[in-house]
């Protein structure tokens, strides 16, 4: 895979509307392409499906998650910690905030032990 320099930062609406491709990332979705964005009645479409960069990122991330590629940056957690965080996300999505907080708290205890 060709290396691409990235940075995590806030993006202005104008920059978003001028983009060629847009995607979101996360633990559960890995990489999810954005089809269009509408702002103040102005709809911008980004095409169908996943683009080349998104596909490469998806491949790299899933290979890390499955343990196929060595995680030299320590981006992944042991399976049991990941399970707690995934369950916390599900609890939050179902508006069970107290359970979500409890699961994240338990995951953090494990992380402190692992590190």
From TrEMBL:
Q: What is this protein called?
A: Uncharacterized protein
The molecular function terms in GO held by this entry are: branched-chain-amino-acid transaminase activity
Question: GO:BP terms for this protein?
Answer: branched-chain amino acid metabolic process
Spell out the family assignment given in the record's similarity comment. Belongs to the class-IV pyridoxal-phosphate-dependent aminotransferase family.
Q: Which organism is it from?
A: Arachis hypogaea (Peanut)
Q: Which cofactor does it need?
A: pyridoxal 5'-phosphate
List where this protein forms a coiled coil. Answer: none
Top-rank taxon of the source lineage equals Eukaryota
- Lineage of the organism: Eukaryota, Viridiplantae, Streptophyta, Embryophyta, Tracheophyta
Q: Any idea which UniProt keywords this protein has?
A: Pyridoxal phosphate
Q: Which GO terms describe its cellular component?
A: chloroplast
> Which InterPro entries does the UniProt entry name for this protein?
Aminotransferase-like (IPR036038), B_amino_transII (IPR005786), BCAT-like_C (IPR043132)
């Amino acid at each position: 895979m060709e290396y691409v320099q990235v940075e995590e930062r806030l993006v202005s609406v104008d920059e978003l509307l001028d983009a060629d491709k847009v995607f979101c990332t996360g633990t559960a979705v890995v990489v999810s392409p954005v089809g269009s964005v509408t702002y103040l009645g102005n709809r911008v479409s980004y095409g169908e499906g996943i683009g080349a960069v998104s596909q490469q990122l998806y491949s790299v991330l899933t290979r890390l998650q499955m343990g196929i590629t060595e995680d030299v940056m320590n981006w992944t957690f042991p399976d049991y910690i990941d399970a707690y965080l995934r369950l916390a996300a599900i609890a939050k999505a179902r508006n069970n905030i107290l359970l979500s907080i409890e699961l994240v708290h338990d995951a953090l205890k494990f992380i402190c032990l692992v590190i």
